[in-house]
Amino acid sequence: MPGERLPMRKIRDVLRLHAGKLSKRRIAVSLSLGRTAVGDHIKRATRAGLGWPLPEGLSDEALERLLFPPPVAISRDRRPAPDWPVLHLELKRPGVTLSLLWEEYRAVHPDGYGHSRFCDLYRAWKGKLKPTMRQAHVAGEKLFVDYAGAPGSFGAEVVDPLTGEIHQAQVFVATLGASSMSYAEATWTQSLPDWIASHCRAFAYLGGVPAQVVPDNLKSGVIKACLYDPEINRTYADMAAHYGTAIVPARPRKPRDKAKVEVAVQVVERWILARLRNRRFFSLAELNQAMAELLEDLNGRVTRHLGASRRQLFEDLDRPALKSLPTEPYEYAEWKQRKAGLDYHVEVAKHYYSVPHALAQEKLWARITDRTVEVFHKGKRVAAHLRASGNRRHTTTPEHMPSSHRRHAGWTHERITNQASATGPNTAALIGVILKSRPHPEQGFRSCIGILRLAKTHGADRLEAACERALEIGAYSYSSLNSILKNNLDRRKPRQATDGPAIDHPNIRGSGYFH
Asked: Which residue from 324, 313, 323, 322 is spatially nearest to 90, judged by alpha carbons?
């Protein structure tokens, strides 16, 4: 192993003493060096054509370059070198292996490298790429999705033309693993509807669907982040099923799982958002139009590493491997878990929809779109309704009703009226009014049962008094009765019309003033 290189100061002393006719041994003793080192530096000076005194103004750096020139690499290997960038792209195609590429290389160059040397040379070339380039991404396999951070600092702002208020837009970014073909758009929020809609537009932009979508553990898409069994939002999973893809979230606290989209976010911030920072936009559509123009420039730029643009790589690699888009676009539908009440209705957005009466008190799933509400039990659709406004009313399908109002978990029309009568005449009267006010008596079950259960909390006497007051003021609902009891209004009698003013004062006109 070569020793440490001598300082230029000592090398100058070696040349000076050698010019003074001192022997190598004497020079070595004088400068505390080995004779071999002294002889080596004298030979280097001779090969470089240097003698003492050295040329005037020769710096230490220049002297070092003359004495220690870089070695000239002379390759004796005349075997043809493969085109490594082309081979690297070929490996992204499904089923293509390094062994297959070596066989094709040897078929063209029979005197070329052997298999092991071929693989070693490829790995050495691959090691010079950036870490993000070293990941193996199969064509058409993965689409990485995420949101760009702090969009306001890059000019993703929209000004309200009426008020002048500035709204911050969120920037959705998606990129394919093999070609790095990217898509970006601005939305108002990162909520589930915007998240789903951005995915649909990204698929439409690419003209196909990848085998997998790799999101970060955003709450809109992943209900529960888990290393082994993440829980996907059902609406998100429904969208994936419609497009025939799979949602595979990145592992928590594993940034390398989504390094591809992290780089894409950085590229979008630098090449799109940063270039829009000084422009003002007055609508989201105007902002997205400007972003779309810069996005085309970004995907058309030739990359330094592979000598091709993202779009060219996309056409060669990803597009042939993507799945076809479905015939119909995805219709956004939100899934909510609901429990059917005793009246065999489920609540969706402050409206009640019927299900078959046998499913009363069962846990169900409601699929909600802008136009319809579908209810599922164990994966089977059991009800479908046109969506109504949130008016606290009922939408009931006659086929869902029991014949003669059969028992529902022990509650019947007779049981409710009998229990109300046992509490008192006012309670029975109020319950009767509620049941008669509904198109179908069972639609009032939910309210009546809640009223009767108030007796457990406040007692039968207070419930009876509260029902009396409710009948007097025309408050025929559970919430009104509960408010009366909470505010102790059942202990006060309503002021009769014949009563005098609550406060007797000369300045207050009595009822006689108006006669």
From this structure: 313
- 198 pLDDT above the threshold of 90: yes
Residues in the chain: 515
Residue 203 banded pLDDT, cuts 50, 70, 90 = very high
Q: Rounded to an integer, what distance in angstroms lies between the CA atom of residue 454 and that of residue 417? A: 15
DSSP reduced 3-state for 385: strand
- The amino acid at residue 140 is G
Residue 495 is predicted with a pLDDT of 54
Please give the single-letter amino acid code of residue 428: A
Record the tokens describing residue 277, joined without a space: 């920072």
Record: fold of 142-321: Nucleotidyltransferase; domain 5 (3.30.420)
Q: In the beta sheet, which residues pair with residue 204? A: none
Residue 216's alpha-carbon distances to 140, 253, 258, in angstroms, are: 19, 10, 7
Interatomic CA distance for residues 82 and 230, integer angstroms: 43
Q: What mean pLDDT comes out for the span 43-49?
A: 85
**At 200, is the secondary structure helix, strand, or coil?**
helix
pLDDT class of 436 with cuts at 50, 70, 90: confident
Give dist(CA 208, CA 175) in Å, integer: 13
**Helical residues (DSSP H) of 174-216, grouped into ranges:** 192-206
Cβ pair 198, 172 in contact under 8 A: yes
Per-residue HEC secondary structure of 3-67 comes to: CCCCCHHHHHHHHHHHHCCCCHHHHHHHHCCCHHHHHHHHHHHHHCCCCCCCCCCCCHHHHHHHH
Each residue of 340-365: pLDDT tens digit? Answer: 988 889 999 889 999 998 898 899 99
Tell me: cis bond preceding 53? Omega within 30 of 0 counts: yes
The contacts of residue 275 (CB under 8 Å, 6+ apart) are 294
Pairing of strands 351-354, 212-215: unpaired
